[in-house]
Design goal:
The chain has 163 residues and is mainly α. It contains six helices and no strands. The longest helix is centred in the C-terminal third of the chain and has 31 residues.
């Protein structure tokens, strides 16, 4: 049941189901996103209903799912444990939000729109991919620069002395 073919088909099915849901909800239309962000103008709350629906579904099912010994298509659950709020997280979240507001797409609806042949969707997906490549190139350079500038950390290992 846990073969790569079955696992990849389940990913494909989940993606298609997600795309259909986005399309039915109208979330592949940038005007929906921009309308949701236009609090002072002609505000469109429909995106909020989609978000609340997703949050409620997650809240209802999460506790039941993680009680299983393992996921259906993997050996272990991979649940993030880090709760740190770092500058990298804040900057990345801000860039995501600005891109979302400017383009009217987030990655899911952008991929659906691009997959349907929409010129704006294809432009968004191309820009998103270019941003990912740029991050892969720039991130190690920034890490190297910040490592050179950071003061040396004190030795945190305990030493054991023979007596």
């Amino acid at each position: 049941m846990n073969s790569p073919v079955v696992r990849n088909l389940s990913y494909l099915l989940a993606g298609v189901l997600f795309a259909i849901g986005l399309g039915l909800a109208g979330m592949t239309q940038p005007t929906k996103v921009v309308g949701f962000l236009d609090f002072l103008g002609d505000w469109d709350p429909s995106l909020a209903f989609v978000m609340v629906g997703g949050i409620l579904t997650h809240m209802a099912l999460y506790r039941f799912i993680v009680k299983r010994p393992s996921p259906l298509m993997a050996d272990v659950f991979q649940i993030p444990t880090s709760r740190d709020i770092t500058p990298r997280l804040v900057i990345g979240s801000g860039l995501f939000g600005v891109g979302w507001a400017v383009a009217g797409y987030c990655p899911g609806p952008g991929l659906v729109a691009g997959g349907s042949g929409s010129t704006n969707g294809l432009l968004f997906v191309g820009s998103m991919l270019a941003g990912m490549v740029l991050f892969k190139v720039v991130s190690p350079l920034l890490a190297a620069v910040s490592a050179d500038e950071a003061p040396a950390a004190p030795d945190t290992q305990e030493s054991v002395q023979a007596s």
